[in-house]
């Protein structure tokens, strides 16, 4: 079967410039790539045909021979060109040719932005992290905080372009905007980042004096942050576009604020619930009474202590805990009693306690039960 005209394969006119041929190749390669045509069994052969055509027409010597002699200029289709240099087989330089269209085919999936010459001239700024400590009271009520963030911001004199006066960068003359250069080493073609533009694909003729061509400068910014009620340690707040400025006009990154809630002197937190350990006297625990306890909103609550309460007894105050971060109600506050043993007793107090102890042998059921079990244990051990 006779080969189709290479210009026809690419959909380009005879006499098309190198850039026009390249554009036509990219269009056809994207259209016919097998990964995008899984339902077309002919797509792979057609894609190879497009690659073969471009391999000839992108080379000035091969193109000149083809324009004069057509397919007859090559022995075996892609062999020795008359008066030219040896060519390569249809798949011989596939990787080299395909790399020209790789970014067009997959750039969107890689999250890149393409600029002139198929290479991104602008780069997105880095995301930043800021650790913010708040009190438990602030986490309960929510608060507006102002933070100072050291970061890179867009350079004002060049408007982020990196060029003096905000002028547009020019295509790199070394790599023709590709951001990479190729060198032949024996049988291999080695591809490296362009040393002139450092892979950007563009250069700046007159760099901005303030930012030295970077398009951004270091500066501390004051930002107002809304801390919602109910935040916990580890809560992350994202401020879109408040991160580091992009390079040469690229979009800014994001700022992530990580919350740390400081420990409280009175309350301990577990999710939306609060715990408060309240000491009570022996007399109050034995006889019963009332204690006044604080609440996280700054208020007070009176709690009844039942007679005969022991250390560790808990009582619940409904809806006196922390609010849920995204709605869903408010937690509770749990009061835990701690029966306090008196210290620094006077002689009279000690005497009264000894007298009370003699009179209260039948008033300590837990102690009586424990020592009864201990006695049984010892008897068993003695055999």
TrEMBL record:
<dbReference type="GO" id="GO:0031072">
    <property type="term" value="F:heat shock protein binding"/>
</dbReference>
<feature type="binding site">
    <location>
        <position position="155"/>
    </location>
    <ligand>
        <name>Zn(2+) 1</name>
    </ligand>
</feature>
<feature type="repeat" description="CXXCXGXG motif">
    <location>
        <begin position="208"/>
        <end position="215"/>
    </location>
</feature>
<comment type="function">
    <text>Participates actively in the response to hyperosmotic and heat shock by preventing the aggregation of stress-denatured proteins and by disaggregating proteins, also in an autonomous, DnaK-independent fashion. Unfolded proteins bind initially to DnaJ; upon interaction with the DnaJ-bound protein, DnaK hydrolyzes its bound ATP, resulting in the formation of a stable complex. GrpE releases ADP from DnaK; ATP binding to DnaK triggers the release of the substrate protein, thus completing the reaction cycle.</text>
</comment>
<keyword id="KW-0346">Stress response</keyword>
<keyword id="KW-0479">Metal-binding</keyword>
<dbReference type="InterPro" id="IPR036410">
    <property type="entry name" value="HSP_DnaJ_Cys-rich_dom_sf"/>
</dbReference>
<feature type="binding site">
    <location>
        <position position="194"/>
    </location>
    <ligand>
        <name>Zn(2+) 2</name>
    </ligand>
</feature>
<keyword id="KW-0862">Zinc</keyword>
<dbReference type="InterPro" id="IPR018253">
    <property type="entry name" value="DnaJ_domain_CS"/>
</dbReference>
<feature type="binding site">
    <location>
        <position position="197"/>
    </location>
    <ligand>
        <name>Zn(2+) 2</name>
    </ligand>
</feature>
<feature type="zinc finger region" description="CR-type">
    <location>
        <begin position="142"/>
        <end position="220"/>
    </location>
</feature>
<feature type="binding site">
    <location>
        <position position="158"/>
    </location>
    <ligand>
        <name>Zn(2+) 1</name>
    </ligand>
</feature>
<dbReference type="GO" id="GO:0009408">
    <property type="term" value="P:response to heat"/>
</dbReference>
<feature type="repeat" description="CXXCXGXG motif">
    <location>
        <begin position="155"/>
        <end position="162"/>
    </location>
</feature>
<dbReference type="Pfam" id="PF00226">
    <property type="entry name" value="DnaJ"/>
</dbReference>
<protein>
    <recommendedName>
        <fullName>Chaperone protein DnaJ</fullName>
    </recommendedName>
</protein>
<keyword id="KW-0863">Zinc-finger</keyword>
<feature type="binding site">
    <location>
        <position position="208"/>
    </location>
    <ligand>
        <name>Zn(2+) 1</name>
    </ligand>
</feature>
<dbReference type="Pfam" id="PF00684">
    <property type="entry name" value="DnaJ_CXXCXGXG"/>
</dbReference>
<dbReference type="GO" id="GO:0051082">
    <property type="term" value="F:unfolded protein binding"/>
</dbReference>
<comment type="subunit">
    <text>Homodimer.</text>
</comment>
<feature type="domain" description="J">
    <location>
        <begin position="5"/>
        <end position="70"/>
    </location>
</feature>
<keyword id="KW-0677">Repeat</keyword>
<dbReference type="Pfam" id="PF01556">
    <property type="entry name" value="DnaJ_C"/>
</dbReference>
<feature type="repeat" description="CXXCXGXG motif">
    <location>
        <begin position="194"/>
        <end position="201"/>
    </location>
</feature>
<dbReference type="GO" id="GO:0042026">
    <property type="term" value="P:protein refolding"/>
</dbReference>
<dbReference type="GO" id="GO:0005737">
    <property type="term" value="C:cytoplasm"/>
</dbReference>
<dbReference type="InterPro" id="IPR036869">
    <property type="entry name" value="J_dom_sf"/>
</dbReference>
<feature type="region of interest" description="Disordered">
    <location>
        <begin position="28"/>
        <end position="47"/>
    </location>
</feature>
<comment type="similarity">
    <text>Belongs to the DnaJ family.</text>
</comment>
<keyword id="KW-0235">DNA replication</keyword>
<dbReference type="InterPro" id="IPR012724">
    <property type="entry name" value="DnaJ"/>
</dbReference>
<feature type="domain" description="CR-type">
    <location>
        <begin position="142"/>
        <end position="220"/>
    </location>
</feature>
<dbReference type="InterPro" id="IPR001305">
    <property type="entry name" value="HSP_DnaJ_Cys-rich_dom"/>
</dbReference>
<keyword id="KW-0963">Cytoplasm</keyword>
<dbReference type="InterPro" id="IPR008971">
    <property type="entry name" value="HSP40/DnaJ_pept-bd"/>
</dbReference>
<dbReference type="GO" id="GO:0006260">
    <property type="term" value="P:DNA replication"/>
</dbReference>
<dbReference type="InterPro" id="IPR001623">
    <property type="entry name" value="DnaJ_domain"/>
</dbReference>
<keyword id="KW-0143">Chaperone</keyword>
<dbReference type="GO" id="GO:0005524">
    <property type="term" value="F:ATP binding"/>
</dbReference>
<feature type="binding site">
    <location>
        <position position="172"/>
    </location>
    <ligand>
        <name>Zn(2+) 2</name>
    </ligand>
</feature>
